[in-house]
Every structure is written in C-alpha cells, then in structure tokens.
C-alpha cells in the first residue's frame, strides 16, 4: 500500500484567506517520482489547524524527493502558509490497510489517533476494528461515505490512525448510537484515543 505523509500546523492568515496556497507549495513535489496525490484542509473543530497530506508510492520515493536539491524551496513556500517556521513541523507517515481515498474525498474526514494500552497487542485491535468497520459500513448512517479504514503509523509501534468520511462532523457524532456503542466499548478496552478531529480536506493535486 502507498505511504501517506501527514503534517499539521497552525494556518497563517494568508492561508485562511487563500486556501489555494496549499497547491502553490506543491509544484515541486508534484513532479517527483512516486508522488500520487495531495490533500489540504482545515480542522473543523478549531478552524485554524491546517492539515497537509501527501501520498507516495513508497517511503523510498519520499526519501528520494526530500533528497532533491529543490526540495528546500517547498519549505520556503510553505512558510507563507504557517505560523512559525517550516523546520519545526512534525511529519507523520501512515500505511493504511485499505484504500483511504473514499474517506479523504468526502466533505469531512475523521482522523482518530489511537494507541495500544499497556499489555495489549495489535492483533487484538485488528480483531475488533475490522468487524466494527464492517458493521458501520452496512448500517446506513446518514452522511456516511464508506468504507472506513485504518493504518499503522510508520516507526511508531502500537499507534494507529482510523479514518472515515462524512458529509459533516455532525453526521459522525449522530452515528454514535446503539449500533456503534458495543464496538466502541470493545475498542476502548484495547486502545486509548489520543485525538479525534475532523478535517475538510480538498484534493490539491
């Protein structure tokens, strides 16, 4: 499966006014070997945290792109979109188990970061999350864009990113009913929820 590079940062006033800045900073990586697509958007909850996601065929392709002499130009352009300096950004990489694009192409994308509780194993998480996602996908929730998926954070054992697509964050919250509660309770026995946000992603390239 492809590798998804994800970074988040406080959006500058320039980016808030002109979201096309997302696309403007990507002209360098868009021609890199193994680059597939890019999504950018703001967190629904605070309306100021920006998310930028780049999809690569492999981690090797990403490393080759970073080694390109022109790559620092991207950081220079990115400085107009963020509050702070580009070299302070934290980049995470996720390898999803299934195609993530239905979630990212939806009007709103759920990002739920989870971490195994002490003594728990990834196999236990997988044994619950798969049937849970199957149940959610067939429940007929209003505003839902199936299928949901999840992935492993590269280099962070026991950390997972769960994602699903919705028409709105309200639709996601409304789906927390008797159908999902038993599954959510089981998941919470195995993992801690580190963060849960929604992002209004738009495809940049």
TrEMBL record:
On the tree of life, the source organism's domain of life is Eukaryota
Name listed for the protein in its UniProt record: ABM domain-containing protein
Look up and give the organism this protein is from.
Answer: Ephemerocybe angulata
The taxonomic lineage of its organism, from the top, reads: Eukaryota, Fungi, Dikarya, Basidiomycota, Agaricomycotina
